[in-house]
Amino acid sequence: MATIGILVIGVLVLVLPLLVKRVGEQLEIFLFVMGAAAVTVTSQWSLPLLLQAIEEPWKITIAVLAAGLLFHFLRGSLHKGIERLRVFTGAPVMAVVLVVVIGLLSSVITAIIAALILVEIVRSMHLSRKVETRLIIMACFSIGLGAALTPVGEPLATIAIAKLSGEPYHAGFWFLLGHLWMYVVPGIAACAVIAAFVMRTGSGEGDQDEPEAPERLAEVFIRAGKVYLFVFGLVLLGTGFTPIIDRFAGSISHLALFWVNIVSAILDNATLTAAEIVPAMEMHQVVAALMGLLIAGGMLVPGNIPNIIAAGRLKIDARAWAAFGLPVGMALMIACFAVLLLSR
User: Fold this and answer.
1) Taking the mean position of all CA atoms in its chain, how far away is CA 79?
2) 3-state secondary structure of 55
3) Could you give the CA distance from residue 333 to residue 292 in angstroms, rounded to a whole number?
């Protein structure tokens, strides 16, 4: 019964935000409810879990709040500088540089800070709503890939290195960079090319949306609160799905696991990494599992923290994200799968 209940919850998490506009607009509350339901169905409520769910979002929330306050007071000067740069380089070139640089830098400055910087830069470019959304999605794919190159970038990398720190890999700080760069760097380059195409085929200067009204200070605190609730819900959701993942992850091939990890589009990839990655895996199995998680994480808003931050700040609803993120993500998954097959 627990398995059926979890599968139903998974389908609801995937489908309802796309079909019901109100759910997509209130994704934080929806994921919180679904996370609580997942933990209830699998009978996993405990004081340690509750404490983890309360404590886990604080670091992200504080970073979002601090950066939000900083950008709130410096926004005028920042936007003027970015606008001058856009005029000098041209929007397509700026988009390519942004996607590549923000993706690679995320492994050093963390995916959270990279996402916050990304949002402010893209807002300053005064793009049409459609182009802005698509550029943000491609940049978030890039951040999700690049942040995995070091344990500083995101929790997935930290957990993977911790799991592989003993025999036979003795994974250290640069371990993932050494084994993933040949997949991640071309992936970031592909995201940049798609971003340039989006900019060239999108709206021109005359089709830009009306400028947004300046953000009120209260909105900075509201956004931070929403991020807290979002991560709280993801912790519960990931915990609820862990028994199912533990049961099946070890019994399938690494290439099948690559495709199974498409569930990273709706689940926290750090939780999946903790459940799947074990020292007994061969390196090609580790790479396949991680690349599936990294790419799929960009497909939908709940898939990665940068998505959550960017979608919340720019008010991108779940349907708008999925309309572009799903087909692009599937194309990247297929391309990566082909490379994994050829590299065996």
Assistant:
1) 25
2) helix
3) 7
